[in-house]
Design brief:
Strand content: 5-15%
CATH class of the largest domain: Alpha Beta
Helix content: 40-55%
Structural class: alpha+beta
Strand order of the largest sheet: 1-2-3-5-4
Mean pLDDT: 76
Distance between the termini: 43 Å
Number of domains: 2
Order of helices and strands: HHEEEHEEHHHH
Shape: elongated
Low-confidence stretches: none
Radius of gyration: 18 Å
Length: 167
């Protein structure tokens, strides 16, 4: 079971009020709110067109920075590292997450389409450009096989990806 926002923030050692004050100062908005679906390793707040993440551990920025030049990865900037990490990202649209996937077939189809576009683009640009191996992509797709109702489509992607890299 995922921790509640309060449990996560207690582990980090910060209150919701402190997080919201940080978000207000970084976004310039007085109307900040926690995003609907929280991650396991962060507390995320939106203010206007900016998303702020409070994290106990750092993001892997080396990989993220190489990916940020692509149209499907938003610019992420670290604003603070002590006593916790604070990252800002422009709001890129309605998010999808695993919790929503379990109940929303449209979100499953959208995620699968986005994944297919990403994989098609990774065939056009060498996968090594972003530091991801074929095995990493295959592992992610195999996790997607667990999503209800789309296993066949994901399996087709896996099969075609394997064929593409064997050529």
């Amino acid at each position: 079971m995922l921790p509640t926002a309060e449990e996560y923030l207690a582990r980090v050692g910060i209150s919701k009020e402190e997080c919201h004050a940080i978000a207000k100062s970084l976004t310039g908005s007085t109307d900040v709110f926690p995003v609907r679906y929280q991650g396991f390793n962060s507390y995320t707040i939106q203010g206007g067109a900016v998303v702020v993440q409070i994290r106990k551990e750092p993001l892997e920025l080396e990989t993220l920075e190489r990916a940020m030049n692509k149209p499907y990865v938003l610019q992420t900037t670290c604003k603070q590292t002590e006593p916790f990490y604070v990252y800002v990202t422009p709001y890129g649209g309605r998010p999808s997450c695993a919790k929503e996937f379990r109940v929303n077939r449209a979100a499953q189809k959208t995620a699968l389409r986005d994944l297919a576009v990403f994989l098609a683009q990774s065939c056009q640009y060498p996968v090594t450009e972003m530091g991801f191996s074929l095995d990493t992509i295959k592992e992610h797709l195999e996790l997607c096989l667990r999503l209800p109702g789309i296993q066949d489509k994901v399996q087709d992607l896996l099969d075609n990806l394997r064929n593409r890299f064997q050529e």
